[in-house]
Design a protein that fits this description.
This protein is α/β, with parallel strands linked by helices. The chain is 24% helix and 27% strand. The protein has a single domain, classed as 4-Layer Sandwich (CNF1/YfiH-like putative cysteine hydrolases).
Length: 212
Amino acid sequence: MRSGSRLAGDFSAPGAAGAARERLAPVPWTWLRQVHGCRVVVVEEPGACCGALADASVTSCPGAGLAVLTADCAPVALSSEEGVIGVVHAGWRGLLAGVVEAAAEAMERLGAGRLFAAVGPCIWPHAYEFSSPELDTLARQFGPVVRATAASGRPALDLPAAVGAALGRAGVALLAESQTCTHCSTWHWSWRARADPGRQATVVWREAVTER
């Protein structure tokens, strides 16, 4: 897994960032047209399914790179000892739709056993005021751990906690979680903070098999 910041460039238009993409992850990328849903694509060869309408991708193919683009949503990298990998774009709508669980199930169908996760930079609750009806719905699904209070004193969503709860529901072990809030970081793009059009890229990949 590798996650980019503003220093790596703007990945909001993946096809226009060839040199930066090569520096971040030197394999063919599968990038997605993310729609805040739960569709998962299975990538069967490097670079396949580019531009698919989905919010997660999985593969067991050596040499394939899987990418999601985020500003304040959470990028989730998934792996297994069997070499099956995945990546998820996890915003609150996708979490409610079950995108994390759907990605885990797709990896298991490809032969993955125990799954592991790393969560990249996203918005943290002190900066994520959230309306009560949607917050109530998320709390019913993931538990009270998702409820927080923003710096303003208003109700907030704890997005990292919601992602953690979704991973727990899917039976995925959380190994690493970034402590960076995209809203506060000057090194990351944030829609909530500045209406940035730019996006970070998080890429996971399997090394290509080379013959000896």
